[in-house]
Amino acid sequence: MHDTAAPNRADAEALDAADPLRGFRDEFVVADEETCYLDGNSLGRLPRASLRAVADLMEHEWGGNLVAGWSGWIDEAQHVGDLIGRAALGAAAGQVLAVDTTSSNFYQLCTAALRARPGRGTVVSDAANFPTDRYILEGICRDRGLRLVFVDDDSGEGAVTGDALESVLDDDVALVTLSVVQYRSGALHDVAGMTGAIHRHGALALWDASHAVGAVPLELDRWGVDLAVGCTYKYGNSGPGAPAWLYVAARHVDALQVPIQGWFAQADQFGMGPSFERAPGIRGFQVATPPIIGLRCVREGFGMIERAGIGAIAAKAARATAMMVSLHDAWLAPLGCTLVTPRDPSRRGGHVTFHHAQAGQLSRAMRTVKVVGDYRAPDQVRVACSPLATRYVEVWDGFARIRDLLADGAHLRAAPPSSRVT
User: Fold this and answer.
1) Which of 256, 284, 307 is the last residue of a domain?
2) CB 3.0–4.6 Å: which of 48, 181, 275, 322 could bond 211 by disulfide?
């Protein structure tokens, strides 16, 4: 099954030797060097610095300072937000908060955007968008009596084209919300071009960057993005359930109002007054007490991204996805797999998806040979290189083991399909 078109293991070893990011792997907890962890697009590895940061917080700040610690913690969501903005989003200070969850931030910003476009009755999203985004939009539109339009993928690559978007845009559209990188296919949208089209019709654009942040270069300020949300636990390596982030462009910060008016957004927070008066700036989008322990993990994860440089990270992600595509074509395609992710490097993010009729069984079987990817029902497997933690040879070995599983077939017959394989 070895094809001369595929890179060999020596090629992968050479890439690792020349990798400017190779030293970062030593900064992560790697419990088993034999495991090919190709699921950093779902949950990143644990940085060793996060262990130290949380222990120091617990012992010296909380343990030693008690409630006096709030003198330093009170603005931590803003400080960490600024770090995320400059390290990974192309966002100037004062536009990003590290708070809450992606879903709650998405709800808040969608509602704020709709309030800012009264008299318009249509919301547009993508039929293949991440489920929680679609579900939240359905609820908002039902409650507000708005029309929700889902654009179908017409590209053949799991993404919405500019033409498909233009076909549903008119002066009744209040909000368009799409994902920067499609969670299934790994396809990368033209954020700048599509945002421009949205603005020409007077609507606001909200981008979900959960599957992009920390893997591809983002330039939210330069692209004219209005609003964005994303998580921190994928390529940001900040841990399960780590606080998410929201972005509000400076031109909108003092104009938009989110529906949940919490005490952290109160202008005189500790005055405990009888009515709400919104704090100026990005603080006006914060609801409640920031999760300080989680924010320390975010700070360490995105501090690593800042040190490495998003350009170097994106370059490695591009080389690794190119290797995956080559290995898929040489080894997996002859065994019944079909590539879902775009072949054009400029049209994909940091993960690669392929189709197989027994994808559920294959995903379970992969775990038996120490390859961790993830399964998306009904028939897709996703794999990724998380650039700071993953080696090229880890990618090569993982694909070699998948090839051997498919060629043998015994594990596929033994393992039942399941949508719960993550």
Assistant:
1) 307
2) 181
Entry pTM: 0.94
Is residue 234 among the annotated active site residues? yes
Please list the helix, strand and coil fractions of the chain in percent, rounded to the nearest 5, in that order.
Answer: 45, 15, 40
Q: Is 271 left (phi over 0), alpha (psi -120 to 50) or beta?
A: alpha
| 316 is annotated as an active-site residue | no
Asked if residue 314 and residue 269 are part of one domain, the reply reads no
Exactly one of 106, 130, 264, 285 is catalytic; which is it? 130
In a domain, 55, yes or no: no
Active-site option among 208, 226, 374, 397: 208
pLDDT value at position 287? 95
- Residue 324 CA to residue 62 CA, distance in Å, equals 45
In degrees rounded to 5, what are phi and psi of residue 331? -110, -45
3 is catalytic: no
Catalytic option among 347, 382, 391, 403? 382
The verdict on whether 382 is a catalytic residue reads yes
Domain count within the chain: 2
Same-domain pairing of 351 and 301: no
On average, the pLDDT of the chain sits at 94
Are the C-beta atoms of residues 236 and 350 closer than 8 Å to each other?
no
Sign (positive or negative) of CA dihedral 310, 311, 316, 319 = positive
Model confidence over 4-30: pLDDT tens digits? 478 999 999 999 999 999 999 999 999
Domain boundary residue, one of 272, 307, 342: 307
Provide the domain limits for residue 190. 74-307
Confirm whether 370 is a catalytic residue. Answer: no
Measured CA to CA, the distance from residue 92 to residue 85 in angstroms comes to: 6
Measured distance CA(302)–CA(286) in Å, rounded: 20
